[in-house]
Amino acid sequence: MSGYTESLLEKYRQRIYEAVGHHTAPAGPEVKAIKITQPKYYKGQDDINAFDEWVNQPLRWLKIYKVTGPGRDADCITYARTCLEGMAAQWFDQEVDGPDHMIHDWTFEDFYSPAKGVLAFYNDLKCRASRMVQLPDEYSMKRKFVNGLPLPIAEGVLKSRGVSAEHMPMDQILIEVQRMESALKLINNHTRVQQSKQAGTRPTNSDN
Questions:
Q1: What's the chain's average pLDDT?
Q2: Distance (Å, rounded) from C-alpha 208 to C-alpha 203?
Q3: What pLDDT sits at residue 57?
Q4: pLDDT computed for residue 13 by the predictor
Q5: What domain of life (predicted)?
Q6: What is the pLDDT of residues 54-74, one digit of tens each?
């Protein structure tokens, strides 16, 4: 996991802890009478601003209704699922509720991780594999994942990062692919900025 991703996740963990990490007294009738707008659905879109705006909404709801404290993690997670749609809901069903998820004791802080890019592709691959009559072996899964990546990412990790389905575990492949995806996004953004600058300073042709 990149340093940026780790710092981002830590920021969300801290925000969640500050909002719902401390136990509070049960909500009284005056609180239960308050009608709060249901949070908008998060669909797993690759937009950190959209996720950042969304994540505050269920936290506010949980805090107002006093669904807080370590003993309410399961309730928080269950409620958060009702605020997901599309790719985000699929990720939840596969990774949190799915019978083969790797983490057995979820906390609310662990749950809040936006699904995007190659990770969404990997989650979809796992979901499809779980529905097969005969589950594919790990090597087949790794090959399917690498072969299904966008060409620039696949070429980058195979040539410059030494990624190999034969000799590298899946979690390490995911780390390298995420790093390459982030690097290519930065390069593409830089290229677009430079092209915009050049277009803005390019002299116009005169008809005279």
A1: 79
A2: 14
A3: 92
A4: 86
A5: Eukaryota
A6: 999 999 999 988 899 888 888
Q: Are 92 and 49 spatial neighbours (Cβ–Cβ below 8 Å)?
A: no
Tokens found for residue 161? 């990062």
32 to each of 37, 79, 93, 97, 201, how far by Cα in Å? Answer: 13, 16, 29, 29, 60
- Nearest-angstrom CA–CA distance, 12 and 16: 6
Say how many CA atoms lie within 13 Å of 168 toward its Cβ.
19
- CA-atom Rg of the chain in angstroms: 22
Q: CA 8 to CA 80: how far, in whole Å?
A: 19
Look at the pTM and tell me if it is higher than 0.85.
Answer: no
Answer whether 163's CB lies under 8 Å from 128's CB: no
| Look-up of token digits 């699929």 | 90
Contact call for residues 31 and 64 (beta carbons, < 8 A):
yes
The token duo for 206 is 């005169």
Provide the pLDDT for residue 116.
57
Both tokens of 147, joined, read 């072969």
Secondary-structure percent of the chain, ordered helix, strand, coil, rounded to 5: 60, 0, 35
Residue percentage of the chain with pLDDT more than 90: 9
Chain Cα centroid distance, residue 154: 20
**Other C-beta atoms lying within 10 Å of the C-beta of residue 90:** 17
